[in-house]
Amino acid sequence: MTSTTIHSKFFAVFTIVLGIATVATIVSGDMFFSLVSGVLFIAAVIMGWPNLAIYGLAFSLPFEGIPLMENLSITRFVGVGAVVVFVMLLLLRRLQVRFNSLDILVGVYFLVCVTTIFWAVNTDTAIEAAVRLAMIMVLYLILANFCVTPQRVEGVFWAYAAGAVLSIIIAMVTGRAIVYGDLFRLLGTVGDPNEFVQCLSVVFPFVAFASQGHPRRSVRIYAYVATSLFCVATILSGSRSGFLWLSIMILVLMFHFFVREKKFGLVLPVAVVIVVSLYLVPAGTMERLWTIVDLKSEKGVSTVERLSNYRAAWNMMLDNPMGVGLRNFKEASENYGVYQKGIVVHNTFLEIGTGVGFVGLALFVSIIIYTLINLKNIDDAKLRISLLYGFLGYVLIATFLSSDLEKTTLLFPAFVSGLLRRSTA
Questions:
Q1: Which residues are within 8 A (CB) of 43 and not within 5 positions of it... i.e. 6 or more apart?
Q2: pLDDT-wise least confident of 217-226, 253-262, 367-376
Q3: What angle, rounded to 10 degrees, do the helices at 36-46 and 74-93 form?
Q4: What is the pLDDT of residues 373-422, one digit of tens each?
Q5: Which of 51-60, 70-79, 217-226, 314-323 shows the lowest per-residue confidence on average (mean pLDDT)?
Q6: How many angstroms separate the CA atoms of 343 and 128, rounded?
Q7: Which of 152, 139, 149, 163 is nearest to 14 (CA)?
């Protein structure tokens, strides 16, 4: 039996157990089951199967974590975080690690963020954020050194898409929040609809474009099912930024498949799903979505709250050009007339600007620009356009969310960095 066959069988078992662990966690609430995926990940690392560990990690990315650490002291928080980072570093050690200019840029950004701990308004909050950012950094390095070929990038995306589909199915069957205790999100937060929609935005373009013209009919059928579920989940989430992204994405698909290629592709079934979903969606959700074009129609205070946060964040940046500490906006905002105290900015760029200052914000924007510029160097046309629209989807939704500490934050820079390694090898 070849090693490829062994890996394929192990990956199948790996995925099945992950699914069982997810269902058991949501239905029973037993924390034991939520740790199963972490144990499997560690086992794959120890057994010397980095490919399986990485694909398994990609599979779990769309799932949100359970806040196991919320009641622990900062010392124990850092201790558990260090263990998670150490295990991920063990996986990184099994890869052929090299660095390029994008890695250096990301590394400098990380160092600037961590440095703000020394003058943070609330040191504990900044340390917790730094631990999460360290996990994101190691994930970036793992993917950047693994995804050195288009085939590996596609493999990570398909595993990611499978996790997204399973999480939606579980949410529909159980009617409960999407939560998950995978290794990466041991220090995570309970799933938020907006954050989950952002997870969908990065993978939707890949499934849509990579499946078109695929020789295997099963892949094309899977794409129809997956994209339809993504649309339903986005609409039912009530996320206005997600609905705005979905509307733009449908126009993009129509342009590429109808205008350029003269094909119906999956636009027709997706359009039908969207129409049906809008018809069946609860009235409250429709009223919330309608505020995209009519702010005065909102019955709540969400829009007023965010505009208040944006003004406060800009004033805070002017007063503190070096930042108030990583993720410390909510700690310092009470002095800036925010509508509601103790919440994040709901804008990734302003969240970074208030936390780590103008230098940190400039570095983050530089990472985005560098990634977009180098996307043109990807030879595979379908992969290139999938990454482009996926990354733009992330940036669009990040404008309305504070997603600087999300798993998708450095996902696309990691893919581009990996493919740049191939071109310079």
A1: none
A2: 253-262
A3: 40
A4: 998 888 888 889 899 999 998 898 888 888 888 878 899 999 999 988 76
A5: 70-79
A6: 16
A7: 163
When pLDDT is cut at 50, 70 and 90, the band that residue 216 belongs to is confident
| 3 state SS of 270 | helix
User: CA 267 to CA 248: how far, in whole Å?
Assistant: 13
Instruction: Decide if 145 contacts 415 (C-beta within 8 A).
Output: no
Strand partners, 65: 180
Cα 153 to Cα 167, 170, 233, 251, 332: the distances in Å are 21, 26, 25, 25, 40
The Cα 357–Cα 297 span in angstroms is: 35
Give the C-alpha distances (Å, rounded to integers) separating 140 from 57, 89, 192, 415: 12, 11, 23, 9
Q: Which of helix, strand or coil describes residue 65?
A: strand
What Å distances lie between residue 338 and 125, 157, 303, CA to CA?
Answer: 19, 39, 12
Taking residue 292's Cβ as centre, other Cβ atoms within 10 Å add up to 15
Closest CA to 344 of 356, 335, 354: 354
Contact 56, 18 (CB under 8 A): yes
Strand partners, 180: 65
pLDDT tens digits, 276-306: 666 666 555 556 655 655 555 555 556 677 7
pLDDT of residue 282: 58
> Per the structure block, which two tokens stand in for 252?
């993009």
Distance of alpha carbon 208 from alpha carbon 266, whole angstroms:
7
